[in-house]
Input
Amino acid sequence: TVLSEKPTTFTITVTSEAGENDETVQTTLKFTYREKYPDETPLYEIVSQENLDDNDVMDIIKLLEQQAEENLGMVMIFTLVSAVQEKLNEIVDQIKTRREEEKKQKEREAEEEEKQRFHGTPVTIENFLNWKAKFDAELLEIKKKKMKEEEQAGKNKLSGKQLFEMDHNLDTSDIQFLEE
Output
């Protein structure tokens, strides 16, 4: 987009190739020709950017400075824009690599966590004896509870003799049944 004729000022938007998940990085460069261009570097600045870190912006500016110095005396806008394009593609690749490394790191951490879960406590004689004492105490407690429950259930349950002593009709019930 041409912004002015004197001095010639224009902007060029540079977008990287689509990376993983169609992610792109983009920057808009503003160039202004100086009086002695191309024997003098043009003025340039980054007007806007998308998905770029501050470090990436600084790298792009350094790249523009380096390319401008190398191409003094030649028309250089195409070269500058091409260099920025390549840098943006590198940034997209770095983002992809960084995500893959983060994913691998998370997988490694999950694997280590899984190993820790199954690792447990190392068994020593002292550990085993402590555990055995607690286990035996728990078993004894359970047996005591069972015995108490059986005793309580037994108190409520009457024997045959006790039933006959309580209800005298039971004495003759069998004889009546046989007669019928």
In short: Residues 77-119 form the longest helix (43 residues). The radius of gyration is 44 Å. The domain at 9-102 is CATH 3.10.110.10 (Ubiquitin Conjugating Enzyme). The chain is about 60% helix and 15% strand.
